[in-house]
Write a structure and sequence with these properties.
The chain is mostly beta strands. It is about 5% helix and about 55% strand.
């Protein structure tokens, strides 16, 4: 059993005024007075972090909330976030990110910059890999991701995106799996690509929806013309549907997710099974290959006061091509969770999940729902 990465945003967060939390997709439309009061100011939160690879890490999360059109309360609140972490293994992680909603939400610009010196376990490529394959690979990653969307209709957006990844200072185990198999990018690489995105979003809330649909289709093309060392493509499909089953926020959430790559795909850019958001219970990257298909369902319900509960189940797998997916190798993911609502107006939860998979399990402590 391997404990999954934990991200602990201190429960002191619950002492702050309503509306200080930000997310990659921004805030829901019903912007609160507390957000308006924080407009232009910074909020800092302490962070404690733990993974088996890094041991404990400590740092801070800072965020600034502001509006590019304060007179229009239907425009969601823009945000800039910055977190920095330092671990007992002398590792540094710095990552600023932003989401900007322009007047009338005609445009949405979001992105992030990350600098990680962060080890990961590597098991090889495929969907049937023994635990004995495990080796720790340390590397430094510089990542830039940016997306610009334009509103086509009230709930439909389309735009372009650009991603850049540079992996260097790769340290492998002598005679280990990575050195012996030498997949694309095994000793470091640069990947740079541009692509397109189409997003339909009718969710009532972003951080904790009780109804609506989210559908994303996106693609990124990497090649020498875009400054990439390898030529490969990445396609993403993310479909979600939310049903309010009871007026007291009994919610059924469904998600289907696909990640598909073609070409000379570096091993860190391959589709990976396992995360804190889908296929919980598996170490991220425990199985990796060119293609990933996964689906999950989650039932969420209130219990008492600000405390809620959840039960979830799903399945998924990776494969080198679409025609090589097989029901016989599908891997399960299921678990139970508790919720504590730290922000009633924005319905922001701290979630505690314990998930099981195929001969594995993991614990997760995160801000906001998995999807």
């Amino acid at each position: 059993m391997r404990v999954k990465s934990l991200l602990l945003l201190c429960l002191l967060c619950s002492l702050f005024p309503s509306g200080i939390f930000a997310q990659d997709a921004g805030f829901p439309a019903d912007t609160t007075d507390a957000i308006k009061e924080k407009n232009g100011g910074w909020v800092a939160l302490p962070v404690v972090y733990y993974t088996p690879e890094t041991r404990f890490g400590f740092g801070a999360l800072g965020m600034r909330l502001f509006s590019l059109d304060a007179a229009d309360t239907s425009v969601r609140t823009s945000n800039v976030q910055l977190y920095g972490l330092y671990t007992l293994n002398k590792q540094l992680m710095i990552s600023p990110s932003y989401t900007l909603f322009f007047p009338e939400e005609k445009y949405i610009l979001d992105g992030n910059l990350a600098y990680f010196k962060f080890p990961r376990y590597y098991y090889g490529i495929g969907n049937d890999l023994p635990e004995t394959n495990e080796e720790l690979v340390d590397y430094t990653l510089l990542r830039l991701e940016n997306r610009l969307l334009r509103k086509l209709d009230r709930q439909l957006f389309a735009g372009i995106q650009w991603n850049y990844y540079k992996v260097f200072n790769v340290q492998q185990q002598e005679g280990g799996l990575l050195v012996s198999t030498q997949p694309y990018g095994w000793d470091g690489y640069t990947a740079s690509g541009i692509g397109a995105a189409l997003v339909y979003d009718s969710r009532d809330l972003v951080v904790n929806p009780s109804g609506g649909t989210y559908l994303e289709l996106s693609s990124v093309f990497n090649g020498s013309i875009t400054g990439s060392q390898y030529s490969f493509n990445h396609y993403t499909l993310d479909a979600r549907r939310y049903y309010l089953l009871h007026a007291n926020r009994h919610i059924l959430a469904l998600q289907a997710f696909g990640s598909f790559t073609t070409g000379e795909v570096p091993f860190l850019q391959l589709s990976q099974l396992g995360s804190a958001t889908i296929m919980r219970g598996y170490y991220q990257g425990r199985y990796r290959d060119k293609n990933l298909l996964a689906a999950q369902a989650e039932y969420r319900l209130p219990v008492w006061w600000r405390i809620g509960a959840a039960a979830f189940a799903g399945f998924g797998d990776v494969a080198p091509s679409l025609d090589e997916f097989s029901f016989s190798t599908l891997k399960p993911s299921y678990g139970l969770g508790l919720r504590f609502m730290v922000n009633e107006s924005e319905k922001v939860n701290i979630r505690f999940d314990y998930a099981w998979g195929q001969e594995t399990s993991g614990f997760y402590l995160e801000i906001t729902e998995a999807f």
